[in-house]
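Researcher: Structure prediction, please.
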Amino acid sequence: MSANSLPVHEASPSGEDPAVWHSLEVDKALDLLDSNADRGLTSPEVQQRVQKYGPNELEENEGRGAWEILLDQFKNIMLLMLIAVAFISGFLDFMAWQAGEFDPGEVPFKDTIAIMAIVILNGVLGYVQEARAEKALAALKKLTSPLVRVLRNGKLMEIAAKELVPGDVMLLEAGMQIAADGRLIEQSNLQVRESALTGEAASVNKQASLLLPEETSLGDRLNLVFQGTEVVQGRAKVLVTNTGMQTELGRIATLLQSVENEPTPLQQRMTQLGNVLVTGSLVLVAFVVVGGIIQARGFSNLRELLEISLSMAVAVVPEGLPAVITVTLALGTQRMVRHNALIRKLPAVETLGSVTTICSDKTGTLTQNKMVVQSVYINNNAFRVTGEGYAPTGDFQLNTQTIPVEDYPEISALLVACAVCNDSVLQKEKGEWAILGDPTEGALITLAGKAGIEKDQWQNKLPRIGEFPFSSERKRMSVVCQGRGNGEQGDETTPVTPNSSPTPYSLLPTPYVMFTKGSPELTLARCTQIHLGNHSDPLTDAQRQKILAENDQMASKGLRVLGFAYKPLAEIPPEGSDETSETNLVWLGLVGMLDAPRPEVRAAVQECREAGIRPIMITGDHQLTAQAIAFDLGIAQEGDRVLTGQELQRMSDQELEQNVDLVSIYARVSPEHKLRIVQALQRRGRFVAMTGDGVNDAPALKQADIGIAMGITGTDVSKEASDMVLLDDNFATIVAATKEGRVVYTNIRRFIKYILGSNIGEVLTIASAPLLGLGGVPLTPLQILWMNLVTDGLPALALAVEPPEPDVMKRPPFNPRESIFARGLGSYMIRIGIIFAVISILLMLWAYNHVQLVTGPGLDPQRWKTMVFTSLCVAQMGHAIAIRSNNRLTIEMNPFSNPFVLGAVIVTTLLQLMLIYVPPLRAFFGLQWLPLNELAICFGFSSLMFVWVELEKLFFRFMGRKSV
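Model: Predicted structure follows.
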């Protein structure tokens, strides 16, 4: 909240920065909001503020309605041309019907009906893809609490959360969802889960008494609470500082709604393709019409020229292409689901293949989201601990050599403390080890288990009879256990270790023992002795310095470090005596743990680099932890720059853009930082995939070219803002999905050149008929629709499932902004289209003259058109077989490596023959019966297309070049 939004006419001492409340004393904050910590606001004050600030709700911008989305589909230039063709064709049919030119039983307006059906189908396909409403804001609203307890008029009452106003005094306790942003007035052992906002799983210990610098990052504002987060433990009294759209959640909603949806590379390429095809078609139509009028020396043949123009317009539009692309993308989504990647928006399948940069969160994506102990420091020895996850299996190593734990009694003593001073439970579920409770404590149970020290066994030997719970002020916890049998001094019953060797706890002269764990510095400060072997000695200053130095060394590697100690007790300490009881402790050692990297991610990062994709870590975690993981996985190298949220905050957008290619690690970042990083990368021409799971990630997920949400830990908000959901939250899955995206894009290019090559051939063949003086239109719009939908469509779908090339992830990504005609595809289509036309025109000339000479019963003189139609359709079958590979000859390929192509060719050829030899179909499509010898000639001419493509491959191979 800025100063001028405060309800009193007093400038904020912290300036106009909305994040000033954490730098203010509680009394000053109450003063600025004209509130009272004991009585809250009065009813008139509440009414006044409701008028000023409005309800405590997230506001939603009005988006496009369903009808607007549907109508937008028909603004596509190719569909507009088809609509115009349908109307003109309908007009010409109406004129012919009025003049009685239709044969008995002939269906009128069939071209118009067929064309409009295709237009509507394509419009519906586009609508279905685009109409999925953006539900991210709706999911964001679910994070707001319905009811809240407040002080008003000096009385405690429960009100609807939307009625909260700045200045209200709100009461919190465990299990509550926080309904507004606020400054803590007082708190008792308050822990808040802020993972939805910050992305970090660990609960945050809050302290009302803190005063923090203005530039403190969101995750470190320990004296504030935020809307949408959850109270895990403790209670608090809070001064409401921001409501509605002024909260951190509201800022995210604003960012989310400010992000505009950009067209994907595929959508941009299809737009470009439509513009080129329609422009080219109109130029060619004008050329044919003008040429025909000049040739006829008047307008006597205008109707025939219009019919030819309509056929050309239908021929140039690849009516089946949108359907083929949609089915191809849908098949890609099915394959990706098998790799644990769920695609929410179809175009994202192809877009993944264009990714140049992957911005990944750390926790749970690059790491296991399981704390694993990496190092133990005891008696001047640093032990490395092996093992993965929570499985209690692993070794203890000293100087790279595995050691038996029983040879080091100090380790056993420490591990017993790890197991006993612990509230979590380790259990096996469906073959997987899992933790119930705090992940940090789970890591300690697992550590003890690796040495055969089981928590259940030791809880029976050292039953807990008292405790001093963890508090954020003390930064430690202690448990009091019965140390010798029934606790009587004379009882000599001693617990037995797994290795039957004595432990210090079995030899203690006292009936009770207290175990303490917590901050190494604070725990060590309360120690006067150190445990060595099976006894304790006075702790020297030199030993203290060594322990603190090792603590610093572990922390510099990004480890979370805990210190352990114990104390023999003659009696059970009274409740609340932690300050006096937690003194004169015996130091045990240090334990360093880390949310360990996923083992498969290293290989995935390496595959990324080989594929020319740059991985970047963006996390809310601390800088040292982020560095340790990034270096371990190969995301960053020694010397790479790390940018923190505070440093990023001070940078202008231009400065960030200049540095964004040099930084591989971003630590302690906030929601707007993530959004700025993505935008800076995009301004540098990078094509960005961004992962996230928290509410704070939603704006960046929506801004990114590919937003990737976590399926396991992800919030509904992040999933609704994303294009793809990782079902296993694994970075390696992103790489597998990227590979699939590249395969899909390659196959889309393959069938585009297959479809458009024939379309160009059709257009040139139709255009040549009047210029060559042949009577009539060789192909009707209905026949062309058959070719574009069936003869082109079925083999194109088969080509869409062509298996990947071996080097698909060994090359850099293609430029996501490259033209659809790039890398020779445009020249290939023109070249093949001309060959199609030459073959068809040669057949057309021969057939036109042949039918004049060969006449007889049942032989229609117009059957030359059927021969042209058949030849074009069958030639496409040869083209489909040959185009499977750009460089390998058909005889060099396994015909059954993609059996769908062979099946599509056979089925389409049979359908084509049915059109000629099944009378109802022949009549509907306006075809004529062909004798077998003329059919054989059609097949002979058609085979020339296959021969040409194969010869091209040999030519390029001889020239040492790759075909397109």
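Model: The mean pLDDT is 85.
Researcher: Thanks, that helps.
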